Here is the input.
Amino acid sequence: MATQVDDARIIEFDVRTDEMLVNMGPQHPSTHGVLRLVLRTDGEIVSEVEPHLGYLHRCAEKIGENLTPRQWIPYTDRMDYLAGMNMNLGWSLCVEKLIDHQLSEKAKHLRVIIAEMGRIASHLVGMGAYGLDLGTFSPFLYAFREREKILDLFEEACGARLTYSYLTPGGATADLPNGWLQKCEAFLDQFEPIIPEYHALLTTNAIFVKRTAGIGVMSGEMAVDFGCTGPVLRGSGVDYDLRRDGEERYTEMYDGYAFEVISQKDGHYPKDHDYPAVPAEAVLGDCWHRFYVRMLEVVQAIDLVRQAIDRYSTASGDWGVPIKLAHKLPKGEVYLETESPRGQMGFYLVSDGNAIPWRVRARSSCFCNLSVTSDLCRGCLIADVPAIVGSLDVVMGEIDR
Amino acid sequence: MAEFFQQIWDSFFQTSSESPGAIAYLVAAVIHCVLIIHVVAVGALIFIWMERKISGRIQDRLGPTRVGGAFGWLQTLADGIKLIAKEDITPKDADAMLFKAAPYVGFAASYCAYIALPFSDGWVAQHMNTAVFFILAVLGIEVFSPILAGYASGSKWSLFGAMREAAQVVSYEVPLGMCVVVPCMICGTLNLVTIGNMQAGSFTNWLAFNDPFTFIVACVYFTCATASVNRAPFDLAEAESELVAGFHTEYSGLRWSFFFMAEYGSMFLVSGLAAILFFGGWHGPIPIAEPIAGVLSLVVEPLLNFGRYVVGFVVGDLGQVTEGVVATQIANLMGCLNFLVKGTIGVTVMMWVRWTLPRLRIDQVMTTCLKYCVPIAAFGFLGALVWQVNDLPTSNDMPVIGKNRFEVRESWVYQAEKELRTTSGDQKSSPDDQQPPFDPHQATGSTELVPQGAFVMKGGAR
Here is the structure.
């Protein structure tokens, strides 16, 4: 005779077929570094996903409380290692806000050039790695081929290829070298006609559309509720971009630029007539839209760099001399957010009047973007998990810091 | 080949025997085995190198450039040596025996199927009247290897890969079988040598161009073959972005390389099968092999005769080479090259697809099979059947250089057709009536018996 079981859940457990608990990561090829996802699966169907973080925690914030702001710049590079320039920019602006440092016009345009080039490089990796997540290798190599040229340009400007430490509080470590702008323009002229290749290999590819359209659909409300930012938010149709809606100190960099926020309005993306139409299967807020927003942002970044190059060459002022290494910070606290390629990257600084900040904090965009994983992945297939996580384009270095 | 060794044996020991003895058969078997294992293993080496080079070129890279000269010819060999030297790991949770056996099951199946695969007219390890059936059956066994590996590894990812493989391969065998039946139906035989010979002549004689339906079927066959050997975009069982490495996650070293060899072996096998069933086998697009072979034999035959004459001084008179044998063998050699090129083209297309397309999801793979491939294959099969039964014009009717397809038949089919025609009083004139076909190259089909109730296609009786 069967034993009497009081707990109803145990009977339920007996009736159901076995669910399997699988660890995806931290050593898994498609978890973008060291993300660990614990999947509860029923065959191929995923019933629950739980992300586990902390495998790349390097105490960056604590280190920031023991260094001067300029000394901490290299640590910001290593947070979002795919968009080091944009991280430098965020921290520099935050420190400048505290010490109330005003930049010359020239320095601002220089920062626009560098930040938008960084955005292109970062989105290229995001795009290529997303192809890898879906099992196609070649777009990854095509993306890296072009990114390599951007890295060459960055190397010429600052000497480093990945961890730049180029933009610092006060401006930049050096002016752009002679002939850099011409090289940059030549790269843009060469790169822009290549983008349709990416669209042919990925965006409009029938299998790619099948794998991404209608997968991981996130409504605009949900995206806002979870604090998603960047392409993840705009992919859900929310018209929000810090380059337009951000703080004065940040948006003044983009004053006078022809610039439209890439998000779907009335079923259309700005300037999408040059690029493939949205497929019928795609639902606003799915993986396909998040990917497409990134692709369009690359085009827009090219446009912004072109405008910035024009302005930079005619602008007045210097390129922005860095503040002293041990610049004494005024007492106070500041918080400033910038639009990094992955979303809203915020830096928080509390100073007690010394050269070394009393508290440093980074607000990670990927952390919020990643938080939707469990909700989006519930009930999908195992193959959709990399597709969804890849479409969020997270960098673990920035989440764990 | 056994006869050949018996001759050597006889001339060496000054004996004479009616039929080859056991030792001759053994020697022949060993030579066949060694030849085929070289086709599989060396073929895998070349194909892996090719895959690296092709993927490199597709991706704007160079691919291997160091080992063995500028083209990296020996890269795979160097990797092979590395793999041999690697530690052979068996996980703690693994079912050790099954875990160790799994790679060999796959390799053996892939290797076995080559026994029935002709490389040229009559160049086949074992003549089989049911070669097509044999190859499909043995390929079906290959699926056990990933299933065993996945089950025995004691890893959940491996298990996922194994289950995917099982579901996928079993479903794709249905349309694959339907597609393979079509050439067999048109030719009225399961013998691959006969099917290949029936496509002699120009490329219009190839079965893919026989009628519109066979072309559709050829395309479906290639899709299903890609899926059944687990190549992208159907490589779900080893999808690295989802399942780490699928069923071979836990393998290392030589065992892992056996999976690879099996994969590349099967790739060439299904491409070769496609070449024979649909694309003329060892016949080139233009029938120039025989004239060229005839011309070459004018040079080679006297040389060989001279050689035999010289050697004859030592071992006793050897006599002359049989008339026409040299020409036939040269034509066969060229046919073999033709076949290898066709098979390699098939493999190259698979590589091209792999490095271009994203991977499908498991439900989409099943949809592709059950909702598209099966109905299209069935439609193609029925269409080809109707075409054949109604005797509609085929590309084979066009005036071409070379033989008409239906001159190449096993003799029992002829007998059956003849009888059918005499009993039904069919007065339709046919070239078959004048002379029974005799193909000296063809070693098969010498059976004189007519099976009771043999099914004969009307299309064959022309």
Observations:
- The mean pLDDT of chain A is 86.
